[in-house]
Design goal:
By secondary structure, this protein is an alpha/beta fold. It has three domains: 65-139 and 335-513, Rossmann fold, CATH 3.40.50; 142-329, Dimethylsulfoxide Reductase, domain 2 (3-Layer(aba) Sandwich), CATH 3.40.228.10; 555-676, Barwin-like endoglucanases, CATH 2.40.40.20. It has 27 helices and 27 strands. Strands 5-4-17-16-15-6 form a six-stranded mixed β-sheet. Bound molecules: ligand MGD (2 copies), iron/sulfur cluster and molybdenum atom. The site of iron/sulfur cluster has 14 residues, from helix 1.
């Protein structure tokens, strides 16, 4: 009989599934969803159902190694941990002595969502060192800024309430691809008569199953939101009582949205005026109506303002009052843990006597090739694969290729980023280390202990940074803290949402709901986290302008590069994490085009195509799948560059232009041209 152990999925996904694993003779034999988890309820997405293949892949990195060939070439030889750690310590000390510690840059994101392996010893280490700080903007920074302006808090409707809704809008949210555990709740609602609409330039898996798909032009959501408000307010469909009690700025908003009549918004978004009117009426009149907003909307020039405007809609209609109403972009902000105690930013005082400079991770190419101030001379990458996922990939690779840059990569697999490293350190998977997990798609905290033995000489990020701290001679007590001590620190914030959540309880129950009322109606009677405590409906940034790279943007650019590229997520992988799998590689090798755009370029289904703009070019295969309108192309992302022709991934095309607020990247506002490259 296999032993059944509990775990939690650590991947960067809103669902944060509760897992069960069968272990026989020290080997994991089956991974499945924990049926008792109230949100993820016993099933897994396709990618993680096969995670044991990754766990036991012959391509796993098992030993430290050092580079023997040219940067990027991929020749490495095995070294001992002692040699690896000594080399790193000597080089980091050398850089700090010669250029100052801010010449050292950590680069990490959410390869694991665990607090410990993502943001604990590593942060302490870099703070104590006085390294540059990394502004972790690559994913959700613009949306976070928009939510903060609109609501103050970055949380909303709990997923379980979607079953009570009568109208569900998936707005820039590919639920079946990226958030599949919300789907059963939507199905339940639909069985009770709810309608399900999708607002997305791409007709993806989710759109195909919708009652109605609204194929908006990329980057036009702010116009659409203002247009919906125009109709709602113009026809008196708003909730005056809610507005009077809990909001400010209504009169100014009413005035502002007068300039967004349906005809104008139709021209800006590509929808029909009558459709916009109909959608506004249905949204305001259907009770309860809920919006699942996801991050697809905010990866564009005015993405933060778009999120802000959309997040104001439930306040206009009073939909926050009702179970099954409101909006969810993320739930993460409700996890009020003691991050300050975990990360110990005050250690910077010891090193620098001040805060270190902040470098935006979405501008890595610039940071490595043309920074103002002290150059970056050492880079330590973990939980991320910037050579694949960062915008302006040619600049990023140029930077990573610099001979005077010392690069360390902590990885499970030999990614493109690892190919550029001087030293590669083998990291544990989430099945092999302890961590505490928040979620960004539900309100359950989870603890996971190691459930499988570690192969080779892999170590967790926490252990690696602990060892590096020792090698650097840091004697602060915080570097010898255990995982459990750090978890207790995290849980000890004293915030009422965490009341009653202890390590012991998590150990027993594995997942624990935050201490929230049931149903959780965060803004049913105000309670906004804004300075005034009210939802402020009027802000000057709420005026629509099109993205610089779009059909209504820079006309000269548009003449040369007439297609709007949307490199959105691939349904069956996770960013670049599964890029080693041949089937993932295949799925991310396509460029979806409209028949009209293909015909005009003499491109047939399956042809190789060159996709290019001023920043670079890559080769993909055309697929005429009926998923995009003329003028838009989509590349399911993100492929490993080294598996791509000429080692160029789709991010050679995307730019380092930042969003209106939050300093986020504009992955989904990117003009390109496409030409036939062969059969
Ligand atoms: N299968 C899978 N799941 C994932 C991931 C993955 O790579 N694969 N990645 C994880 C991560 S890191 C994240 S951040 C989440 C993201 O989850 P989502 O936000 O759902 O994913 P995206 O693909 O970024 O964007 C969602 C949708 O927005 C659409 N879109 C693009 N531009 C616009 C626009 O201007 N307006 C509108 N209305 N829609 C637009 C895209 O076509 C896409 O269908 O998913 C997580 N889960
Ligand atoms: N074209 C395009 N580019 C995009 C996006 C897009 O939609 N289109 N999405 C953007 C978004 S939303 C995001 S969030 C980023 C994601 O970009 P990243 O955060 O870089 O995510 P991944 O590409 O999945 O790479 C994560 C890496 O972390 C490693 N890892 C996992 N667990 C551990 C661990 O415990 N220790 C160590 N040391 N390593 C670990 C994995 O092996 C993997 O190689 O990509 C962005 N880039
Ligand atoms: S990637 Fe998301 S859906 Fe898949 S198992 Fe992990 S948490 Fe669940
Ligand atoms: Mo993300």
């Amino acid at each position: 009989m296999p032993e059944v152990r509990h775990s939690a999925c650590a991947l960067d996904c809103p669902d944060a599934c509760g897992l069960l694993i069968n272990v026989e003779g020290g080997t994991g034999s089956r991974l499945r969803g924990n049926p008792d988890h109230p949100v993820t309820r016993g099933f897994l997405c396709g990618k993680v159902a096969r995670y044991l293949e990754r766990e036991y892949s012959p391509e796993r990195l098992l030993y430290p190694s050092k580079r023997t060939g040219a940067k990027g070439e991929g020749s490495f030889e095995r070294i001992s941990w002692g040699e690896a750690l000594d080399t790193i310590a000597v080089r980091l000390k050398g850089v700090a002595a010669r250029y100052g510690p801010e010449a050292i840059l950590p680069y990490s994101y959410a390869g694991t969502m665990g607090y410990l392996q993502g943001s604990s010893m590593d942060r302490r280490f870099f703070h104590r060192l006085g390294a540059s700080r990394l502004d972790r903007t690559i994913c959700s920074a613009a949306g976070a800024a928009g939510m903060t302006q609109a609501l103050g808090w970055r949380y909303g409707t709990e997923p379980e309430q979607f079953r009570d809704s009568k109208l569900i809008l998936a707005w820039g949210a590919n639920i079946l691809g990226t958030n599949v555990h919300l789907w059963p709740f939507i199905l339940e609602a639909r069985r009770k008569g709810a309608r399900f609409y999708v607002i997305d330039p791409v007709l993806n898996r989710t759109g195909r199953l919708a009652d109605k798909h609204f194929p908006v032009h990329p980057g036009s959501d702010l116009a659409l939101a203002l247009g919906l408000m125009h109709v709602i307010i113009g026809e008196g469909l708003h909730d005056s009582d809610y507005i009077n009690r809990y909001t400010t700025g209504f009169e100014k908003l009413r005035e502002r949205v007068r300039h967004y009549p349906p005809e104008r918004v139709a021209a800006l978004t590509g929808l029909a005026a009558a459709e916009i009117v109909q959608l506004a009426r249905e949204y305001a009149a259907t009770r309860p109506a809920v919006i699942r907003l996801n991050y697809g909307v905010q990866r564009t020039d005015r993405g933060a303002s778009a999120v802000q405007a959309i997040a104001l809609l439930p306040a206009l209609t009073g939909s926050w009052r009702e179970p099954g109403g409101g909006l969810q972009l993320s739930t993460s902000h409700a996890f009020h843990v003691n991050r300050t105690g975990l990360q110990m930013a005050e250690l910077q005082q010891k090193a620098l006597g001040r805060e270190a400079r902040l470098i935006n991770m979405s501008e890595l190419g610039r940071a490595l090739t043309q920074i103002d101030g002290p150059p970056v001379k050492a880079l330590v990458v973990y939980d991320s694969n910037p050579a694949a996922i960062a915008p302006n990939q040619n600049a990023v690779h140029r930077g990573l290729r610099r001979e005077d840059l010392f690069t360390v990569v902590l990885e499970q697999f030999q990614t493109d980023t690892a190919d550029y490293a001087d030293v590669v350190l083998p990291a544990t998977t989430f099945l092999e280390h302890t961590d505490l997990y928040f979620a960004y798609g539900h309100y359950y905290m989870q603890l996971a202990r190691p459930v499988l033995p570690r192969p080779g000489e892999v170590k967790s990020n926490v252990e690696i940074f602990r060892l590096l701290a020792e090698r650097m001679g840091f004697e602060d007590a915080c570097f010898v803290e255990s995982e459990d001590e750090m978890i207790r620190t995290l849980l000890g914030s004293g915030h009422p949402f965490l009341e009653g959540i202890t390590l012991e309880r998590l150990e027993r129950e594995h997942f624990v709901r935050l201490n929230l009322p049931r149903p959780f109606l965060p803004f049913a009677s105000g309670g906004f986290g804004t300075p005034s405590g009210r939802c402020d409906l009027d802000h000057d940034n709420l005026e629509y302008t099109p993205p610089a790279e779009s059909r209504f943007g820079d006309a000269e650019l548009r003449r040369r590069y007439p297609l709007e590229l949307v490199p959105a997520k691939n349904d069956d992988s996770l960013n670049s994490t599964f890029g080693h799998r041949p089937d993932t590689d295949w799925q991310t090798s396509w460029l979806e085009m409209s028949a009209a755009d293909a015909e005009a370029r003499e491109i047939r289904d399956g042809d190789q195509v060159r996709v290019f703009n001023d920043r670079g070019s890559c080769v993909l295969r055309a697929r005429l799948a009926g998923t995009v309108q003329a003028g838009v192309v989509r590349a399911p992302s993100t492929r490993w560059p080294k598996k791509s022709p000429a080692r160029k991934g789709v991010n050679v095309l995307t730019s380092e232009r930042l969003t209106d607020m939050g300093g986020g990247p504009t992955f989904f506002a990117c003009l390109v041209q496409v030409e036939r490259a062969g059969d």
